[in-house]
Amino acid sequence: MAPFRHLFPSLLLAVLAGACHARGSRGEALLFSLEDPRGDDHGDGELRYPLRQDFEPGSLDLVSLAAHAESGGTRFEATFARPIVKPQRGRTIDAAGTTMTDMARFGFYTFNLDIYVDTDRVEGSGRTDTLPGRNLTLASGSAWEKVILLSPRPYESRDLLRTLWARDAREEAGRQGAVSESTVRTLDAQVERQLEERVFFPTRIRVFGNTVSFFVPDSFLGGLARSSWGYAVAVTGATLDRRVDLPSAFGSVTAPSEQSVSALGIGPGVSRERLGGGRLGDPNQSPIVDLMVPEGIRQEEVLGPKGPAWPAVTPASSVLPQAPDAGAPGGQGDTPGP
Ligand SMILES: [Ca+2]
Ligand SMILES: [Ca+2]
Asked: Which chain residues have CB less than 5 Å from ligand 1, an ion?
């Protein structure tokens, strides 16, 4: 379907949202809403779901992301093309008898949703890397200050991210010479601070039909989510069990679980354990299934070989692309100075 048919309502919603925000209403006000085309849950165009009954075309197809003001924070609401698959009660997933409901206590288990938030909109300010295992780089004009990772296993994902960032920091320091114990402690403390300040793993989560909603407190974002910020949103398949993401016989799974925070890898051909349709000889291919991109940018190109860096979407600028003088409600205070 043409993307415009989906964009138009989102623009209207964003206009309304800006108005609500400006009035400072904190009831259940809609802050903004972004839409994504239906039927593009195919990464670079070739990506295929794992051969499993719980993955069907459309199941990881993001169609909208809305943000609502709530007491103490923002409630995001992500809607998919199909009902969200619930963990099956009593179904065991390993030899130790761990059940699916033990592993996925928040009512979903097939996907992760990453939201990279560019709060200062300053070129080159912030990070352009994505979380381990996403294998994608953001445009420098969309460098992020904060990331929200909605994962089926938030606590485990947080531990894993700490481990991976700490490992990277030590390796980086090691390249400049021997690393003392006190340096390791300092590095670990820095990683801990980055985790605290920059990354949020929602745990107030509700799954209903095609929609998952999750709460992000003001203390993390520094207030309500603003329509003037940049949002880079990506859906990946989720791994519940570390075993499932180990390198397969194909030998080219992009992200073994040790290097990924909860994201399923991709490889050529088809598989039960990972995403298929991966490019041969491209071990760093991104396994992102669905991606939000601004108008005029193609997801398939961003996720394709040697694709352009990934730009974020700004709800407010989708409303008034060339009209900064139109008195955008709530816009003035949000715009960072030069
Ligand atoms: Ca989509
Ligand atoms: Ca998309």
From this structure: 36, 40, 61-62, 290
> pTM of the full predicted structure?
0.83
pLDDT tens across 253-294, in order?
Answer: 444 556 899 999 999 999 988 999 999 999 899 999 999 999
Measured over the CA atoms of residue 24, residue 27, residue 31 and residue 32, the dihedral's sign is negative
pLDDT tens-place string over residues 220-239: 999 999 999 999 999 999 98
Among all bound ligands, the one having the nearest atom to the CA of 234 is: 2
Task: Please give the Cα distance from 273 to 223 (Å, whole number).
Answer: 40
Domain boundaries, the chain: 3-328
Interval between CA 38 and ligand 1 midpoint (Å): 4
Number of H helices, E strands in the chain: 8, 10
Name which CATH class applies to 3-328. Answer: mainly beta
